[in-house]
What we know:
Elements: H1 5-8, H2 40-66, H3 70-81, H4 89-96, H5 100-112, E1 116-120, E2 128-132, H6 134-158, H7 165-171
Antiparallel strand pairs: 1-2
Amino acid sequence: MVTTIRNAGRWPPDRPKGDFVDEPHTSDSLPAAGDPWRDTGRLWERVVPLFSTVESRLDRVLLHRHGIGLASLMALGAVTRSHPEPATVGSVARHLGVNASSASRLLAQLEQSGWVNRSSAPCDRRISRLRATEAGRGVWDRASRTLDHELRTAFHVLAFHEKYAHIVARLCRTGGTGPCDGPSSP
Length: 186
């Protein structure tokens, strides 16, 4: 059986064949009442503003307390956690879910701040090898604790918000310790 590129990454995987984004939707192809996929649009309408609210708060707090924004901190974390192996621009991009150009810009800012060192790979000089500096690891340690604390606080507060409580409840079905267990000390 030959799988075409069009069918290879079918999403969601359990939907019937022929239900692709690039095909026109008719009322016959929409999920029936009671189908859990029917409410995904409404859920998405709530998730996006929730994400934006939390992300902007985290960005402000991290910039104020540690001098690093959320996106840069996530890039620094990808480099720091790759230790002892050096990270590459591609590995950071994949970790962040962004393209290589965006990752490269974030990493250039981190390098300029003295939090990341960049060197060429010995086997291929086109590949940059990235390592966190001692200062970068210190920023990561402090700022990631702040990030964890602020995320727990945000989820705790939003769990009682009329608009977001049901989304937070869905996100917090971890069964153990997670972001919804309430604030911890930074």
